[in-house]
Inverse folding.
């Protein structure tokens, strides 16, 4: 005839996914069996935890039982003894009294003498007459806790009872490990989901679906013919790329901070360095040089969403640039002998550079 333990063992082998609620439901079934068989009123799974002044201890899932394993080199409770010595215990009182009312305790399973005191689980409060404590084992016989069956009825041990409770404990060990694995996997999954969600927000990955921006930096005194031509050409590409011109930034606040923020959010850049120097020639604007330096630095990094490329534009008669942009092919503004912009040539050169981005 099949026993309860054999049915539980068969069930344990048939499942591979148990959450905490499932585990508690199974423990409830075990409790009802043990109560019907031996008047067990409390079934406790106690798991080893560090701490407890360095001595280690056992904690029940609901937090209502905390046991320090040793104090002053003595075991504090029979459950601590079972865990540390890795032995099963069948504890009764020699005079059949309640276990917590005296020290006249007897172990009928492993024949251990000089037993430590017994502490009732909170749901029994001085009514326990039998406590069966068995270590919970992982693979390779490593102990990770104990299970205790506490009864209000004095019962002597039998070989059949020992085998039944050993088999039940073996199944509980396996089911607890399955539930722990599930809970750990769930926590790691939830954490991974949260990290993924945060990364999407932080990195603005949705921006890759939008058309890229190109930032146009220039002096406030830049030649209108050049700026207007740049805008005309960019209008031709308006369905593929959006122009962000610094003069069009009109939000309240520090304009320099807004420009730097706009540059960092653009995929490309155009820098028209030159401005009139009031002597019939051109010079480079230092603000534009700074912004170009920022673009150059960002394009050489591996930062997510940093600008990828930029186009430097200068007048041929500008003074020598104060630092080296030789690696960037400078687009020089074509002008005729009367210093008028050669529009078509400039447009074609700019189109070619934009196509190459």
């Amino acid at each position: 005839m099949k026993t309860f333990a054999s049915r539980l063992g068969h069930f344990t082998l048939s499942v591979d996914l148990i959450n905490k609620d499932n585990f508690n439901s199974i423990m409830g079934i075990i409790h009802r069996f043990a109560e019907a068989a031996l008047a067990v009123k409390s079934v406790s799974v106690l798991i080893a935890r560090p701490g407890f002044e360095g001595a280690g201890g056992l904690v029940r899932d609901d937090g209502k039982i905390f046991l320090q394993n040793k104090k002053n080199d003595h075991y504090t409770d029979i459950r601590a003894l079972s865990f540390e010595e890795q032995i099963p215990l069948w504890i009764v009182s020699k005079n059949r009294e309640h276990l917590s009312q005296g020290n006249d305790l007897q172990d009928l399973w492993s024949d251990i003498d000089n037993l430590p005191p017994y502490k009732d689980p909170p749901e029994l409060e001085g009514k326990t007459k039998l406590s069966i404590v068995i270590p919970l084992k992982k693979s390779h016989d490593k102990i990770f806790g104990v299970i205790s069956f506490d009864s209000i009825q004095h019962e002597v041990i039998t070989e059949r009872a020992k085998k039944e409770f050993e088999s039940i404990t073996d199944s509980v060990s396996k089911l607890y490990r399955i539930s722990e694995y599930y809970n750990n996997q769930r926590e790691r999954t939830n954490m991974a989901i949260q990290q993924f969600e945060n990364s999407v927000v932080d990195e603005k990955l949705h921006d890759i679906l939008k058309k890229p921006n190109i930032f146009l930096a220039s002096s406030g005194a830049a030649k209108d013919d050049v700026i207007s031509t740049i805008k005309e050409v960019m209008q031709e590409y308006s369905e593929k790329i959006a122009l962000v011109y610094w003069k069009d930034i009109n939000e309240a606040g520090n304009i320099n901070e807004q420009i730097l923020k706009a540059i960092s959010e653009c995929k490309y850049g155009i820098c028209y360095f030159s401005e009139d120097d009031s002597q019939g020639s051109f010079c480079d604007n230092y603000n534009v040089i700074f912004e170009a330096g920022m673009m150059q630095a960002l394009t050489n990094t591996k930062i997510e969403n940093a600008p990828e490329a930029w186009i430097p534009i200068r007048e041929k008669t500008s003074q020598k640039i104060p630092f080296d942009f030789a690696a960037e092919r400078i687009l020089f503004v074509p002008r005729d002998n009367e210093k008028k912009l050669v529009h078509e040539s400039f447009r074609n050169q700019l189109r070619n550079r934009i196509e190459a981005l």
Summary: The first strand starts at residue 40 and ends at 49. Residues 4-183 form a domain with the Beta-Lactamase fold (CATH 3.30.450.40).
